[in-house]
Amino acid sequence: MADTHTYDVAIEWTGNLGTGTDSYRSFSRAHEVLAAGKTPIAGSSDAAFRGDPARWNPEELLVASIAQCHMLWYLHLCAVGGVAVLDYEDHAHGVMTMDATGGGGQFTEVTLHPEVIVADAAMVDKAIELHGEVGSVCFIARSVNFPIHHEPRVRAQ
């Protein structure tokens, strides 16, 4: 029997400016993403869709989830594969394309740009190779229907 994991979050709209949604411009897209025991995440829509650019939007959170999952699985694969990672950061880039009617859209790709420092120069090739294995185990990558590319840069300390 397969293990099942569940995740519960709450979304609370905080953008009623007094008249609710009586028109497209009459309300804020402000909301909070909540989960028990965690700091709330201040959310909104993308600024292009009348959102607050100072708050996280769902599109950014999706790209962040992909980058986080990739990093966590990558670190795991390195640990069991004998590659000592000393530092890791990523500057992920997602592309969402609107449909011709302007009423919707979808992500068409995400590109990860991990920058990794390993303990020894002999580990560099394997460290690069392991990025290619992450997609087969990363929960988020396996759950999306668009390509996730990675352009890693790995160097020894």
TrEMBL record:
Xref: InterPro entries: KH_dom-like_a/b, OsmC/Ohr_fam, OsmC/Ohrsf, OsmC_Ohr_Peroxiredoxin
Pfam families (UniProt xref): OsmC
Matching PANTHER family: OSMC_OHR FAMILY PROTEIN, OSMOTICALLY INDUCIBLE FAMILY PROTEIN
Protein name, as recorded: OsmC family protein
